[in-house]
# Entry
Amino acid sequence: MPVVAEARHVLAGTAGWAPRGEPMTSGPVQADARLAAEATSEPGETIRILMLEDEPSDAELAQRHMARGGLKFSAVVVDTSISFTQQLTAFRPDVILADFSLPGFSGEGALKLSQELCPQVPFIFLSGALGDEAAVELIRKGATDYVLKDRPARLVPVIKRAIAETRQRARLAQVEARLQRSERLAGIGRLAAGIAHEFNNQIGVMVNCAAFIREEAERRAASGTDREAWSGICRDAEQIEQTGERVTRLVHHLLAAGARQMSRDRSVDLYEVVRGSEQALRSALGSRVELRLEAEHGLWPVTADPDQIREMLLPLAANAAEAMPDGGTFSVVMSNVTVNGTDADEHPGLGPGCYVCLRATDTGKGMEPEAVEHAFEPYFTTKPFVQGSGLGLAIVYGIISRADGIVDISSVPGAGTTVTAWLPRAQQDGP
# Structure
């Protein structure tokens, strides 16, 4: 736990105070067995509580009430503006408990600081005397709630409710952001597909005309009339045809990115499709990257075009190889997932039902949040233009979307990237 000279530190269940400037022990101080057993909220979860309090006995009493009320927590107690501000960053609290009046500082001032530095953290006043009008005004200014010190039974329910509401708001914000991204990507995909269709029509005319010119040039060169000149025209026509073929492949990728690609869907075993691409994946990854393929026993079938699934896997492997120039691991893990109504809220477009989840993970350099936000957009790339088209992840998004699935990406700079796709379980005949 971070130590600040002006901060007094109290851990969950601790009976005493650390003198100013004196470090606490590195591990949590154990409460008595009964309190330790009761001080739980969710398994493995510890709530970080920053307390602004100048009375040691009041801080200790509040912590005992929280422990008896079933909270598993760690706490830092401060009593100055400087230490409060420092601990907002150093301790990163999940909730703030603040007295209203302190020598040289005030709870209202602390509220203003917290609103500026960490507005998402619940701020609860824990005061000995706070009138209703004052409390209403503080809540209007951003406080989450208030608890009077002579009514300690309210403390734990208020903290739990505040944290639950904060997490719900965070989940809703995440869902809204994902919905907005999905809508934006759908619009970009339609635009890409529309452009691709126009390109396809024009390129078809160009390639056909180039073929006619080449054939005529070959015929005239063969007849011996101006052989050298007609041979040059033939080479030029061949160059036009080759360029047209490259553009046609680009059109194919744009259609895939826009989920407008023609497909031959059938019920397939996703693991068998991935295993069938193993050699191609190893070639794309290179010798320094280890490939791991795993699948749950009894993997459900999905309805998809196996060729498009293979086409989707190669950009993932290529991106992973670029993220791990010194080597690493690229894992493709498949599993069955049953989504209920609560889970579906976390994934816009993924309704309740049965899915096969494909999770592709690398141990590479990862991506910054700004790059993650735009990763599925056509022609968005963090590489120089000459090194990549920027269509790789857009193709992944388009193919999964066309198969009625959804795809998401998560990444941590320096720790790797995971692309996760959910494909609906294929409808089964009979019972």
Summary: Confidence is low (pLDDT under 50) at residues 1-43, 384-390. The CA atoms of residues 340 and 352 lie 5 Å apart. The two ends are 58 Å apart (CA to CA).
